[in-house]
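The step that takes the researchers longest sounds almost clerical: writing a folded protein down as plain text. The outcome of that step, for a single protein, is printed below.
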Amino acid sequence: MSPPSDLPVEDPAILISDASLRIDSMPPDGRALELSVSADERAAIAESLSITALDALAVTLKATRFRGGLRITGKLFARLEQPCVVTLEPVHQTVEEPVDRIFLPVPQKRRDPEAEVFVDVEGEDAPDYFEGHEVDLSALIIETLSLGIDPYPRAQGADTAVVLPRTDDVETSPFARLKALKDQDS
């Protein structure tokens, strides 16, 4: 079953240059990673997230070894533009999000797909899993950005009262119209 076509879907084909790390060549004290995403990559990300433009995207990360995998910490910074939900005017937004994610190798013993999984909503996030010796951080970066974007941006001074019909007028409400139709049939 595929998701509805009007919802933005993370595109697995979007790969950010230099956003992958080899775990087998990781120094003992970790590795710092600073990424400034190219204009073509930003355009692809903006399209996949259904925003007008992604003017800047920079990520500063620190990768350290953790239980046979990696712990990635750092910060994401982005400037973007999207339409106002009321007026459709361009709204500019700055996103600054912390990054803290754990990547572990896929366990040798796979779980039964029918087994129940208990999730502690208050607990730590479950780790992400990877196969092989390389971890690609593109999906992590795009996901972190998408969670920081305002889902209902409003232009300054935008007021829904201008766009929405008045609801205090009982005679023009849909229910009043249905009642009038019912009364005509009687």
About this structure: DSSP finds four helices and seven strands in the chain. Residues 167 and 173 are 7 Å apart (CA to CA). The first strand starts at residue 20 and ends at 22.
